[in-house]
Amino acid sequence: MCRHGRRSRCRHDYPQRGEFAHGFTYSGHPVSAAVALENLRIIDEEHLIENAGNVGAYLQACLHHLEDHPLVGEVRGVGLLGAIELVQCKSPRQFFSPLGEVGTRCRNHCFANGLVMRAVRDTMIISPPLIFTRAHVDELISKARIALDLTLADLEATSPKDINHAPIS
Predict the structure, then answer these.
(1) DSSP labels for the chain?
(2) Averaged over 94-106, what is the pLDDT?
(3) pTM for the complete prediction?
């Protein structure tokens, strides 16, 4: 019995009663299963896995071209996933304080220039769709460089002494 004297709506006695049986209306539903199968067919028919591998390799190579930017401390990724780490100083690597503020600025410049890139603290994250092409990668890199340049200009205008342009050794 629940401490409130009611069995219904009481979460406290679930461990004593055993399994908490629940379900979702879409679990095993034939429409959901049909949609999933069609999605798998399209992925196979349009060779999206192969595309992700080919375009992903190109994306990784192009992302590394951003390493020469004064704000970029590290570029990392695999396939169509990438991260661009923003740093205050490249050597020795030093992060901005407060952590996340520069990433948010960069993200806002990305959005203003038609690029959707997520900021996780001061690391810019990209995860484009499987249908991404080399032309999309070129556009992404161009817009990312613009956003990085605008972010650097913001920082230099507000606190130029805080940016160290030394390369990573």
Answers:
(1) --TTS-STT-STTHHHH-------TTTT-HHHHHHHHHHHHHHHHTTHHHHHHHHHHHHHHHHGGGGGSTTEEEEEEETTEEEEEE-SEETTEE--SSTTHHHHHHHHHHHHTT---EEETTEEEE---TT--HHHHHHHHHHHHHHHHHHHHHHHHH-GGG-B-PPP-
(2) 92
(3) 0.74
